[in-house]
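We emphasize that the prediction below concerns an isolated chain of 466 residues; any contacts that depend on oligomerization or on bound cofactors are therefore not represented. The input was used exactly as deposited, without trimming of termini.
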Amino acid sequence: MNKVATRFAPSPTGALHIGGVRTALFNWLYSKNQKGEFYLRIEDTDKERSKEEYKSQIIESLKWIGINYDGEEYIQSKKIEDHIKVVDELLKNGHAYKCYCSSEEIEEQKKRAKQKKIPYIYDRKWRDKKETDAPKNIKPVVRFKSKIDGTSILKDLVQGNVEIDNNTIEDFVILRNDGTPTYNLSASVDDHLMNMTHIIRGDDHKINTFKQIQIYEAMKWDLPSFAHIPLIHTIDGKKLSKRDKASTLDDYSKIGIMPDALRNYLLRLGWSYKDKEIFTLEESIQYFNLNGIGKSPSKLDMSRILSINEHYIKNMNEKDLFDQLLNYCKIFKKEIQKNKENKIKQSLNFLKNKAKTMEDIFNNSQYILNDEVNFNKEDLKLLDGKAKKIISEFNVKFKKINDLNRENLEPIVENLIKSNETNFKGVGQPLRIALTGSKFGPGIYDIIISLGKSDVEKRLTNKAFF
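Result of the prediction step, given as a token string:
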């Protein structure tokens, strides 16, 4: 048996879609599990819509999420001559023919099918006609001679056996009248040239698979195995499209979803192994198989993505978490000044507490990063006479502390609660607003310790609220 080889074959006509990323992931994991190879093929034959920037974005997206392909990218447009040679061979061996129908004729056939409310299938007018009957003023397309009788069965590794009546597959075009090959021809030839053993892709490709199998059989090539993955739907149950929010990797990386967390989520989106939820990269490769892929569409659930990301944030080594934060800030041009890095690093143990994303950690750090306090106007109104008195009294006692730690801070707060006949919130809230500008944020002891003595004293005498 040949060494397992899979591929991911996106078109560089737009940013990489989240469904495409999952397809790439499943191909990659299957290859790695089987000690095989995984390749990236760029299907760039749509000259008008294909752009270099999208090709770069696809490559960067795969790299970001940790999917590494073997060898160089396979560029489809460089193989056109190989595709056309196969068209010539199919014409010679009687599996294809030239069709001289004008575009008007084809439009008329489509119109009649629409009126009858039946799917359009080309009427095979030129299937058995002689070339001598061909009109001189029309450039022909080349059509594949599809099977007319009987049924075909696709032995799908995910869906099981899928049967189709052969007469439902039209004589599809394999070469346009401008001399360019079509998707089904090019994909089949490339998969053969690349020695693909397994084609794993979305189940919207099932009809293409039946067409491509016929090309393989006509060319007497060894047939790869096929697996069709159910599509990803929105939370409302509609097919996810590129127009939907959170449909590309950029939508996730810019809010600070970590690559490992998103990869873990996509792995579990339509695949399962026992009742396990969190997988390391090594476990993903070890346990992945095609048997675990479900047959029904999966729903993209942002709350679940955030929950998994939160799990990774909470359980990650803080040094690694800090590196991830710096990397996130670098990519999205959010500044952490050098002189603040140590303070952030030492404060990660609590800054991450209520954070679901890197963006949350960065936002939770603002009171450290900004020397000037940015007050929330509504929260500032909460600093009434009693609150200001508590702030002043705290500052007087705070100045006498030499070692800044929780043990020295707690007695001060407890005394203020008693002397002002209030509760912990009555002391903590005014101090938090004075120190961070907001009534929301980390615990008051964490805030004080992270800022340091001189910063706290400076902020507690701010004229903005006195």
